[in-house]
Q: What sequence folds into this?
């Protein structure tokens, strides 16, 4: 009889702990799964931030290169055009002998097309606004020689965002 009683006692103990293990395992699994998902989300977020920063830096570099190309092309006969806003270049072409305004309106740098959005000269400097083929655009402040016909320096680019979904043609 004593053995029968101890056997019943062991069955009662086993039944008491049977309902405890499954919820514990499920809870631990859920915590581990949530922790893993959180780490994965943080990793994806960090990767996205890096990608955005890289694309921004790439756009800055491309716009700087386009500004340098504009500066290079704005020499010789085209330097006369720097005295007037770009909207007036075709009207005053005859006063700038040999100048070709189209040479300053667009170009390519490393197979990346760019175009001039605007040029506004001022005393000792001018504002240059350029756009890339994908619509990204930037503004520069160009330091001019006292006669206004030579570019002496180019400021850092100020990103202006994108121009809708326009592409250069």
A:
């Amino acid at each position: 009889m004593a053995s029968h009683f101890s056997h019943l006692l062991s069955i009662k103990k086993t039944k008491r702990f049977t309902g405890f293990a499954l919820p514990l395992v499920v809870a631990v699994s859920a915590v581990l799964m949530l922790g893993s998902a959180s780490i994965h989300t943080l990793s994806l977020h960090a990767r996205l931030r890096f990608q955005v920063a890289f694309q921004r830096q790439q756009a800055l570099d491309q716009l700087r290169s386009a500004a340098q190309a504009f500066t290079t092309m704005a020499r010789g006969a085209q330097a006369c055009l720097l005295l007037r806003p770009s909207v007036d270049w075709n009207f005053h072409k005859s006063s700038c002998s040999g100048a070709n305004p189209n040479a300053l309106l667009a170009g390519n740098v490393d197979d990346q097309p760019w175009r001039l959005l605007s040029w506004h000269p001022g005393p000792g400097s001018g504002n240059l606004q350029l756009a890339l083929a994908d619509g990204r655009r930037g503004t520069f402040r160009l330091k001019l020689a006292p006669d206004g016909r030579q570019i002496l320096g180019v400021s850092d680019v100020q990103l202006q965002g994108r121009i809708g979904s326009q592409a250069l043609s």
About this structure: Residues 165-169 have pLDDT under 50 and may be disordered. The chain is about 45% helix and 25% strand.
